[in-house]
């Protein structure tokens, strides 16, 4: 185990970083299956999208959804209503302008909520003959009456040879719904009649006229509808009537639609100033919103025409001949699923990375591996840089796979939007996500909890964003500020970004233009700019807080990281501090200290005053007090412990469970801070210089802290590198170390640590604690769970190792303590009861022999009598069904007397077994522990 080039130099930043990186890469190599599963997730989602897209495309490819064709000739004339939308229309039809009129069922009548005497009698609804009510108002009623009368003709005048033209000179209306475009006027393809408006309908109110549409001629039924012109005293009355008639979706009886309302305002001969009420929405029962704007110009034309006639006489006409849509190319039906579902699916795909990073971080925390690495010299800087870059690299590879795959299979979502925007967006987001994982990792201590919560978070966020947040984005009346507030939640910000991408690619695709470009970010409806800013700022903030909280948790103080940041952290002396007067004065009470403990304390005081370098560990009144909780008193785990350990000594701490040994070790290795007092390791104070101490320290914790999927050799390589071993020295050290703990042969070194037996793990832990020649080694029960052969082996390892380093070892095995330790301390209830080498202790506490004898139960009293005769001061220490043990003071008995007495006794009663033994360390231990803890029963 001794190594020629002792790694006194602490490992440099890059050496540490290199060690961690190599470990992570090995880890990643082992994790191939998980990685494949991870990468497959977006692939599966993309393929699913492609499948849905293919099915849809197949559907749209059917003749039903394509421009109708007959014998290779395609066009509007061969298409039915579903098909016509896709046809190229080079020369759109001209349609006569129509008014939007309410259906006869809904036309306004007199009701209890519109109780106007001039409204039509409700009976008209029975035969569909209700008039179309139009309301008028203005400042000059007589003027208004004239204008309104001019608007509605009293006769119909149709020229059968040119029906379309003569429609323009009459007032026609329809109650059909309009389309989004005006390529076809639905009024001419509907069952519903076209109405012609007249001031009064005659007897023969229906006529049929031939209409030429494209190449075919149809008979179109025209039905008379009476226009009822009603004057109102104010615009608010008009408004009120229209509002009350609004279709509220209850019974038909409650609906009273007004055809139109006109307010002539201050119009007169010189001024024409009108406002018009019209119904722009045409919402049918399935909730389709249609805009009837195409039918509004006619209502404007009516009143303009009427004003012209008022000024210039009835001969003058302002004709509104036709409406005509703009021509359009062929527009096959398209539906890009990825753009529509992309928001939700891709949010999941990207969020998916979060649990991966989080669990990996929590795993190291749960297994205390982070602290283990730290104890072996891994600084925070390398840890953060390497872990962060490592997760970043994984995320980038994942995202690259995702984007490349999506592009290859041709999802518009990826191909249409500018790749540089996509890159910036994804890059910022994954950085934010990793920082967030670092921050949240401090909240979890259990991998399972973290996994479950993270996945609930992932799916919940996706669903909430897709089914709630999206509505807020789409609702233009929703305050923008609130949306930005919601986007502070990174999941929503991600969704918003993806939503913008999908919107851009969707519109780009349907319009045949492009997706998002950098210039589009300037667009006020495009939320991408805000999202990028929010995510960038959050990334920096979250990263800062994650680092800060990590520092707080590792130093267990809220202040020190801030001090570090402010840059005025005190310089601590690296030499022993002189004991202050105040400290000496404060302890007034007299302790009934045993001589050996007192001597140790004096030695420590001496050392503090005159530092010498050969003492590796000096503990100065180290104490640990746990505050009392729930009314329990404070717990003194360690009380004013003083101890000085030179190099080359192995010190054994014996003590019953719960005596405070582990608390002591935890303070020494920096897991907890001492409540008072301190310890110096190689002259460095454990309260302030832990990072310096770590580089020369080795720890074998009570519970093995190992990575399940790394092999023994990889563990040693990693920790060896952390201890600044390089090249051949490293391989040699690792091999020697593996050999010394018997893990070298039979390929054991290259098996995963998770597959090791308990004993093998233990040996590996010991090897880890010794690699790189640390000057101070702590071993917390190193041999528990080892078989006798391995234990012997381990002892020889430790014995060889202790030559020029200080080892503190806790154990429950007296044999081990005797074999390994140069000095022992029995530690009970927070303080040492005695300190000394094993022989001294035995001599001091073991002034007795132990005599044991086994007989039948009937003869127990005989044995007692026998012992009484041998030594009047004998004490019975053990007694069970005929077997008894006694302590005989050494000065009272002679061994030869005992033999004689037993021989005599054997003749009187049967003795199945007997023995006489000198005190063992175990006896000493039990005795000391019992004295110190009168109220505790010891097992
Ligand atoms: C109202 O209009 C009529 C017809 O144009 C006009 O003769 C009359 O002077 C107007 N009345 C007022 C008060 O302007
Ligand atoms: C409108 O005003 C006229 C005259 O001032 C009045 O007779 C009539 O009742 C008013 N109509 C309504 C509906 O208020
Ligand atoms: C406008 O038309 C829609 C659709 O026919 C109808 O539901 C609504 O009640 C109408 N509004 C008014 C004020 O008549
Ligand atoms: C038109 O009427 C409105 C509302 O009464 C009024 O504010 C505006 O000044 C009028 N315009 C003219 C040119 O008279
Ligand atoms: C509502 O409009 C849609 C789309 O135009 C149509 O398919 C549906 O049949 C209409 N529903 C009713 C009840 O008119
Ligand atoms: C963005 O908009 C601002 C004002 O709205 C304008 O001044 C600027 O030139 C625009 N930038 C780009 C790149 O279009």
TrEMBL record:
- MF GO annotations: ABC-type transporter activity; ATP binding; ATP hydrolysis activity; ATPase-coupled transmembrane transporter activity; lipid transporter activity
Q: What is the lineage of its organism?
A: Eukaryota, Viridiplantae, Streptophyta, Embryophyta, Tracheophyta
EC category: hydrolase
What is the annotated localization of this protein? Membrane
Say which family it is in. Belongs to the ABC transporter superfamily. ABCA family. CPR flippase (TC 3.A.1.211) subfamily.
Record keyword Transmembrane present = yes
Residues crossing the lipid bilayer are: 36-56, 340-363, 383-411, 423-445, 452-473, 531-549
Record key words, sorted: ATP-binding, Hydrolase, Membrane, Nucleotide-binding, Transmembrane, Transmembrane helix
Task: Note one Pfam family from the annotation.
Answer: ABC_tran
GO cellular component entries? membrane
Name this protein carries in UniProt? ABC transporter A family protein
Q: Which residues form the ABC transporter domain?
A: 617-854
Q: Which Gene3D superfamilies match?
A: P-loop containing nucleotide triphosphate hydrolases (3.40.50.300)
Q: Which organism is it from?
A: Medicago truncatula (Barrel medic)
GO BP term, pick one: lipid transport
Which domain of life, per UniProt? Eukaryota
Give the matching InterPro entries: AAA+_ATPase, ABC2_TM, ABC_transporter-like_ATP-bd, ABC_transporter-like_CS, ABCA, P-loop_NTPase
Q: What is its EC number?
A: 3.6.3.25
Q: How does it sit in the membrane?
A: Multi-pass membrane protein
Alphabetical list of SUPFAM superfamilies matching this protein: P-loop containing nucleoside triphosphate hydrolases (SSF52540)
């Amino acid at each position: 185990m001794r190594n020629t080039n002792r790694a006194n130099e602490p490992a440099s930043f890059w050496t540490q970083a290199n060690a961690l990186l190599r470990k992570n890469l090995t880890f990643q190599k082992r994790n191939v299956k998980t990685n494949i599963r991870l990468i497959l997730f977006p692939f599966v989602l993309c393929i699913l999208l492609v499948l849905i897209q293919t099915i849809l495309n197949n559907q749209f490819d059917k003749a039903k959804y394509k421009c109708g064709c007959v014998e290779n000739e395609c066009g509007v004339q061969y298409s039915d209503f579903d098909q016509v939308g896709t046809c190229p229309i080079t020369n759109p039809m001209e349609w006569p302008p129509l008014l939007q009129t309410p259906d006869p069922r809904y036309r306004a009548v007199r009701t209890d909520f519109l109780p106007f005497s001039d409204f039509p009698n409700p009976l008209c609804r029975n035969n569909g003959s209700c008039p179309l009510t139009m309301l008028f108002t203005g400042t000059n009623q007589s003027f208004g009456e004239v204008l309104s009368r001019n608007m509605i003709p009293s006769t119909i005048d149709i020229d059968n040879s040119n029906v379309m033209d003569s429609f323009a000179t009459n007032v026609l209306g329809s109650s059909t719904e309009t389309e989004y475009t005006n390529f076809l006027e639905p009024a001419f393809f509907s069952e519903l009649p076209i109405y012609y408006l007249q001031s009064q309908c005659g007897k023969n109110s229906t006529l049929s006229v031939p209409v030429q549409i494209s190449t075919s001629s149809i008979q179109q039924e025209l039905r008379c509808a009476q226009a009822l012109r009603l004057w109102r005293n104010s615009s608010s009355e008009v408004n009120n009537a229209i509002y009350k008639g609004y279709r509220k979706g209850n019974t038909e009886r409650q609906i009273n639609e007004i055809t139109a309302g006109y307010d002539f305002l201050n119009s007169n001969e010189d001024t024409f100033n009108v406002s018009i009420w019209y119904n722009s929405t045409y919402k049918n029962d399935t909730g389709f919103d249609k805009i009837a704007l195409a039918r509004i110009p006619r209502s404007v034309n009516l009143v303009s025409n009427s004003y012209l006639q008022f000024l210039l006489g009835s001969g003058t006409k302002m004709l509104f001949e036709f409406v005509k849509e703009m021509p359009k190319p062929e527009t096959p039906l398209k539906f890009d699923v990825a753009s529509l579902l992309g928001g939700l699916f891709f949010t999941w795909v990207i969020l998916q990375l979060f649990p991966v990073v989080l669990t990996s971080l929590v795993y190291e925390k749960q297994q205390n591996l982070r602290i283990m690495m730290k104890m072996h010299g891994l600084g925070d800087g390398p840890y953060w840089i390497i872990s962060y870059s490592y997760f970043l690299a994984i995320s980038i590879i994942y995202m690259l796979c995702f984007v490349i795959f999506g592009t290859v299979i041709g999802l518009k979502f990826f191909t249409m939007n500018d790749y540089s925007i996509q890159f910036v967006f994804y890059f910022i987001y994954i950085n934010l996500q990793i920082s967030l994982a670092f921050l949240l990792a401090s909240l979890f201590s259990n991998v399972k909890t973290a996994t479950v919560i993270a996945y609930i978070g992932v799916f919940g966020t996706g669903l909430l964003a897709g089914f709630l947040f999206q509505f807020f984005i789409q609702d233009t009346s929703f305050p923008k500020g609130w949306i930005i507030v919601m986007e502070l939640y990174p999941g929503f910000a991600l969704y918003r970004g993806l939503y913008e991408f999908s919107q851009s690619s969707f519109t780009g695709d349907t319009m045949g233009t492009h997706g998002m470009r950098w210039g589009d970010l300037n667009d006020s409806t495009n939320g991408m700019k805000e999202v990028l800013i929010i995510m960038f700022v959050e990334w920096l903030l979250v990263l800062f807080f994650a680092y800060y909280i990590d520092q707080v948790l590792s130093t267990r103080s809220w202040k020190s990281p801030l001090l570090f940041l402010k840059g005025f952290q005190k310089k601590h002396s690296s030499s022993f501090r002189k004991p202050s007067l105040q400290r000496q004065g404060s302890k007034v009470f007299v302790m009934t200290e045993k001589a050996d403990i007192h001597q140790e304390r004096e030695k420590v005081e001496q050392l503090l005053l005159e530092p010498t370098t050969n003492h590796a560990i000096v503990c100065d009144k180290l104490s640990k007090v746990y505050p009392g909780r729930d009314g329990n008193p404070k717990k003194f785990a360690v009380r004013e412990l003083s101890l000085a350990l030179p190099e080359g000594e192995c010190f054994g701490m014996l003590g019953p469970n719960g005596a405070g040994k582990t608390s002591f070790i935890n303070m020494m290795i920096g897991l907890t801070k001492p409540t008072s007092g301190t310890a110096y390791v190689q002259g460095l104070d454990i309260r302030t210089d832990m990072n310096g101490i770590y580089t020369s320290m080795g720890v074998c914790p009570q519970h093995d802290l190992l990575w399940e999927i790394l092999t023994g050799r990889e563990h040693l390589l990693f920790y060896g590198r952390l201890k600044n071993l390089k090249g051949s020295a490293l391989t040699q050290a690792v091999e020697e170390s593996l050999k010394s703990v018997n893990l070298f042969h039979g390929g054991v070194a290259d098996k995963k640590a998770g597959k090791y037996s308990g004993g093998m793990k233990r040996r590996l832990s010991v090897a880890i604690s010794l690699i790189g020649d640390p000057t101070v080694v702590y071993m917390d029960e190193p041999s528990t769970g080892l078989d006798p052969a391995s234990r012997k082996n381990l002892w020889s390892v430790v014995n060889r190792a202790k030559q020029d380093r200080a080892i503190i070892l806790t154990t429950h095995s007296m044999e081990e303590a005797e074999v390994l330790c140069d000095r022992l301390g029995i530690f009970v209830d927070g303080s040492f009861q005695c300190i000394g080498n094993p022989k001294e202790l035995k001599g001091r506490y073991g002034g007795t022999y132990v005599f044991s004898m086994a007989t039948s139960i009937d003869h127990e009293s005989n044995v007692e009598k026998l012992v009484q005769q041998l030594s009047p001061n004998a004490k019975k220490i053990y007694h069970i069904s005929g077997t008894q043990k006694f302590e005989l003071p050494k000065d009272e008995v002679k061994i030869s007397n005992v033999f004689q007495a037993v021989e005599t006794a054997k003749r009187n009663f049967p003795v199945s077994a007997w023995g006489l033994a000198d005190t063992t360390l175990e006896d000493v231990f039990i005795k000391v522990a019992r004295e110190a803890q009168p109220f505790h029963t010891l097992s």
